[in-house]
Amino acid sequence: MESPQTSALESKTVIAARDALSGRRLGLKNLLPFLGPAFIASVAYIDPGNYATNIQSGSEFGYKLLWVVVLANLMAMLIQSLSAKLGIATGRSLPELCREYFPKWLTVTLWIFSEIAAMATDLAEFLGATLGLNLLFHVPMLPATVLTGIATYAILSLERFGFRPLERVIGVLVFVIGASYIIETIFSHPSFPQIIQHSLIPWVGNKDSVLLIVGIIGATVMPHVVYLHSGLTQNRIVPQNDQEKKRLASFSTIEVLIAMTLAGLINMAMMYMAASEFHGTGHTGIATISSAYQTLEPLLGAAASGVFLVSLLASGFSSSAVGTLAGQVIMQGFVGFTIPVWLRRIITMLPTVIIVMIGVDPTRTLVISQVLLSIVLPLPIFSLLYFTRKKDLMGILVNRRITTYMAMITALTILCLNVVLLTLTFSG
Fold first, then answer.
1. What is the pLDDT of residues 142-199, one digit of tens each?
2. What gap in Å lies between CA 18 and CA 28, rounded to an integer?
3. Residue 131 CB-half CA count within 13 A
4. Is 266:179 a contact under the CB 8 Å cutoff?
5. Is the CB of residue 264 less than 8 Å from the CB of residue 366?
6. What span, in angstroms and rounded, lies between the C-alpha atoms of 305 and 135?
7. For the stretch 267-304, what's the b/e string if a residue is b when 16 or more beta carbons lie within 10 angstroms of its beta carbon?
8. Among 57, 248, 254, 417, which residue has the fewest nearby CB atoms (within 10 Å)?
9. Three-class SS of residue 241?
10. Which H/E stretch holds residue 414?
11. Which of 38-42, 48-52, 301-305, 369-373: highest mean pLDDT?
């Protein structure tokens, strides 16, 4: 049952949004009721998988792979804006449209791959939060997985009170991550000329760097959140005519730009902190989150290493909750039924529990999981592109031709990177 306070909060948000769409509400406050979906989606772009790939990239190759973070973030802005627009235009999520328009065999195939991607995502996110508890509070890894499950389920339970409480909690956790990396930037004194140079000039390198390039894109542009974003916008604020659809889509695009820019800056900060403090001081073998924490303390002090772990914990809790939420949207859309959130939470915990029990290196597992995500990623992008270019489905919000071309280039770029990765891997 909803509490009167949170029901009133959601009602107030909807009323403010309707006033903004009708033109009765003016100024920057217009945007406030629409903030939420993209920030929930942005959590997937700053999850522990990003920590793993960004720290390993920065320590091994310095600032040289910052351009990949910039490229991946631009891809994310485009893809997430299309996903949000799809939900606004159709009132349905991307998985629901796949089930409605695609043959059953294709729908089932997409569902299976999407569930695999969601499991890989949750593995990264759950391991990150577990590592954060282990390193920050010295909780043994196995009990830490249980605590992570309880904490993420508590965050998810806010959804029964409406969309606003969950959005606010996720927003606070994103703020904690962002504030942590502002502090880390102050501590680490990175080279800003190198940041600018390597953010603009591509560098590829060898097989190891290609693995990380694909991993960075897989850790940044997430398949499950492509599906989720359309579900977050489909019934949040319902437009009543074409003019309101256009205004709502404009507000959504602005929110996506803000949220994804913040996520991109955080990812850049992860990498240039590692470049400055690890690569710049000869610690080029930092390939795990644990070793990053242990190396940070003597280099920058206990405060800096503590801030690093606080950000990791906030990232793990928030992204794992969002991953479970995405799993519900994926299952409900593709196959038309859902399982209780607590049951999905337990099922998706199992791979992490197994990895912890058998002692597999968590950070290496994180990086490999991100490569898997990058390989699966073209499937939801091509599906999204197929629907957003259909005039009869999207109406006034149908893609412009340039948007379709850019989305196609994005999907083909990811495919090409994966082909290069597989070629280098099997050629030795």
1. 899 889 989 988 998 888 888 888 999 999 999 999 999 999 898 889 999 999 999 9
2. 15
3. 33
4. no
5. no
6. 10
7. bbbbbbbbbbbbbbeebeebbbbebbbebbeebbeeeb
8. 254
9. coil
10. helix 401-427
11. 38-42
Could you identify the residue written with the tokens 């409605």?
100
CA distance 199 to 267: 12
Query: Using the 8-state DSSP alphabet, how is residue 201 labeled?
Result: S
Q: What are phi and psi of 198, to 5 degrees?
A: -85, -10
Q: In the 8-state DSSP scheme, what is residue 235? A: S
Written as six digits, the tokens of 385 are 């592109």
Other CB atoms within a 10 A radius of the CB of residue 254 amount to: 16
The number of CA neighbours under 13 Å toward the Cβ of 180 is 24
Q: Are 56 and 357 in contact (CB under 8 A)?
A: no
Query: Does the pLDDT of residue 290 top 90, yes or no?
Result: no
User: Which of 42, 72, 43 has its CA nearest to residue 57?
Assistant: 72
Lowest mean per-residue pLDDT among 189-193, 255-259, 291-295:
291-295
Amino acid at 82: L
Residue 19 identity (one-letter amino acid): D
How far is it, in rounded angstroms, from Cα 310 to Cα 314? 6
Residue appearing with tokens 């996110």: 125
The encoded tokens of residue 214 equal: 């694909």
In the chain the first and final C-alpha atoms are separated, in Å, by 58
Helices (H), 336-400: 341-358, 362-376, 378-388, 391-394
**Largest alpha-carbon pair distance within the chain?**
64
C-beta separation of 25 from 155 below 8 A: no
What are the structure tokens assigned to 407, written together? 């989305």
Residue 377, helix vs strand vs coil = coil
Report, at the CATH architecture level, how domain 35-427 is classified. Answer: Up-down Bundle (1.20)
Q: Which residue has the tokens 């973070």?
A: 69
Residue where the block lists tokens 């939900």: 87
- Measured in residues, the chain has a length of 428
Contact 32, 49 (CB under 8 A): no
What are the pLDDT digits (tens) for 114-134?
Answer: 887 777 777 777 888 888 898
SS3 call for 24 = coil
